[in-house]
Amino acid sequence: MIRFVVGPGNRIVPDLAAKLPGRGMWLSASRDVLDSGRTRQAFARAAKAQVTVPDGLADLVQAALAQRLLDSVSLARRAGQAVCGFQKSREWLTSGRAGVVIRSDSASPDEFSRLVSGRRDLPVATVPDRVLASAFGRDRAVYAVVAPGALAQRLIAEHERFSGVAGRPLPDPAGVSKEQAEL
Q1: What is the DSSP string of 57-86?
Q2: Radius of gyration of the chain (CA)
Q3: Domains and their CATH numbers in the chain
Q4: What pLDDT is attached to residue 146?
Q5: What per-residue confidence (pLDDT) applies to 41?
Q6: Locate the YlxR domain: which residues (predicted)?
Q7: Closest-CA residue to 132 (of 95, 97, 167, 106)
Q8: pTM: predicted TM-score of the whole model, two decimal places
Q9: Separation in Å, CA 32 to CA 27, 36, 55, 83, 127
Q10: pLDDT of 179
Q11: Which of 69, 155, 143, 66 is nearest to 108 (CA)?
Q12: Sheet of 82-84: strands edge to edge?
């Protein structure tokens, strides 16, 4: 769910941290719900006032959620609860120190299967390439692992919201999207 509030000038503002003052309006974290909320005047009805919905609201929310993903991974890295790279990630997976596996959009499915072999029960977050690279200060990063705990749970929650708004199917622990598994 994503919270929205009415900001200055009766403009709708996404409140991703759910901390802004004012009466909140909650919508499902789905691109089609955000788009239909704009066209069906759902924000005006919920606010009980005439409001201005910014053009490209779904794209604005998607970019902000990608930034929250980056912040979550960066925070885990700075806290010493995340490692990056195939070999380090594999070591954490085999030693049982992994709570979430993160892979970039450009990750090879075959290589990913080798990485998680034996640990397919872990949640998998597929993020844009720039998120991992920026979080670890590298030109390119493909795999990362986050230790179990509050930061891992935060990352999973942010990933679910991002996937819904980006229109991506959520992968199952084996790395196959739920949409592909149903086929």
Answers
A1: HHHHHHHHHHHHHHHHHHHHHHTT-EEESH
A2: 18
A3: 2-55 (no CATH), 62-182 (3.30.1330.30)
A4: 92
A5: 78
A6: 1-59
A7: 106
A8: 0.79
A9: 11, 6, 15, 35, 20
A10: 41
A11: 143
A12: 82-84, 143-146, 100-104, 124-127
Query: Using an 8 Å Cβ cutoff, are 173 and 98 in contact?
Result: no
165: nearest Cα among 12, 27, 8 = 27
| DSSP one-letter string for 22-40 | S--EEE-S-HHHHHHHHHT
User: Are 144 and 136 contacting, i.e. CB atoms less than 8 angstroms apart?
Assistant: yes
Q: In what order do the strands lie in the sheet with 2-6?
A: 12-15, 2-6, 25-27
Check if the beta carbon of residue 27 is closer than 8 Å to that of residue 4.
Answer: yes
Indicate the Cα dihedral angle 72, 99, 166, 14, nearest 10°: -40
Instruction: Read off φ and ψ for residue 13, nearest 5 degrees.
Output: -125, 130
Residue 177, both tokens:
């999207």
- State the maximum Cα–Cα separation within the chain, in Å, rounded to a whole number: 56
- C-alpha separations of 143 from 87, 136, 152, 154 in Å: 9, 11, 15, 18
